[in-house]
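# step 3/5: fold
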Amino acid sequence: MRLEGNFSLKGKRKVVKSILGRVKARFNTAAAETGGQDLYETAALGFAVCGPDQRILNTVLDNILGFIENNAEAEVVDSRMEFDFFFG
């Protein structure tokens, strides 16, 4: 993500914390800043969801991405989804 107009790590933390908190509350998912912690104009966020159906998980992740893209505080410049499958 690109945080335009941000000039400090403190300002970045405020924006990232806000986005992560709203995503966690709305989508009941695990979320964390996963990269760029020492850069004040960029952030990498990661989200984890679990479930029995990849289509449902894909929809949830698409909805999270759309939610963040509609956020005026940051611009999504890249996104990637990965799926891991575990069988018992």
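# step 4/5: annotate
The beta strands are 30-35, 44-48.
# step 5/5: archive (pending)
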